[in-house]
Every structure is written in structure tokens, then in C-alpha cells.
Design a protein that fits this description.
mainly alpha
């Protein structure tokens, strides 16, 4: 299973392609995209001071940590392949929900 993100913005797509190039995202790449995404949001926050953009960063960090915690738990328990597949599917559905939320809100601006 794999989940792939494609953006409507060329610069983000190029960035994501460099991460996907070796077909494995490592911790450094995840940290790099976090920093980059925080910088982009901070730049927008300068002009949109009345918007609660910090909440987006906070919740993105929380979601990342939650996924990381569940992955650690699954590794420790040595889940059978079928259960790993079901877990991946369930998490991908949750991420689909987040993307759908973006599509019905921010994408419609």
C-alpha cells in the first residue's frame, strides 16, 4: 500500500517528487517538509494575523505524532501482515478525510 500526495502547486510537487525519488521517506525528509511547511504558513501568517494559522501547525504536528505512536505500537507487537494492511488502510482513510476537509474548505476559496 502507498499513499501519494499531489499538489496543484508545481513547487510543492517538485519537493514531494524529490522525497519520493527513492520510494522511501526517511525521518530527515519528514523533518525537512515540516520545517518547509511551517515556513510557508508563517509567511502567510504575517499578512493574515487575524487567522488562527498556529492551530493548523499544532494539529498537523499532533496528527504526525499520533501516526508515529501507532506505528511504533504496531512494530512492537509484530502485527501479522493482514492486520498491518488493515491498519494502513484505516489510517489512509483518516488521511483521506483530512484531504476531503481541505477540498471542501480551503480549496474552494
Amino acid at each position: 500500500m502507498a499513499l501519494t500526495l499531489k499538489s496543484s502547486f508545481d513547487d510543492l510537487n517538485e519537493y514531494l517528487e524529490t522525497i519520493r525519488a527513492d520510494k522511501k521517506t526517511d525521518a530527515r525528509e519528514a523533518l525537512d517538509i515540516r520545517r518547509s511547511s511551517d515556513e510557508k504558513l508563517d509567511a502567510v501568517a504575517e499578512t493574515l494575523k487575524a487567522f488562527d494559522l498556529e492551530a493548523i501547525k499544532k494539529e498537523a504536528d499532533e496528527l504526525f505524532r499520533a501516526i508515529q505512536t501507532v506505528a511504533r505500537q504496531a512494530r512492537r507487537q509484530h502485527l501479522p501482515e493482514a492486520e498491518r494492511d488493515e491498519l494502513q488502510k484505516a489510517v489512509e482513510y483518516q488521511l483521506g478525510y483530512v484531504v476531503a476537509g481541505y477540498q471542501v474548505t480551503i480549496e474552494r476559496l
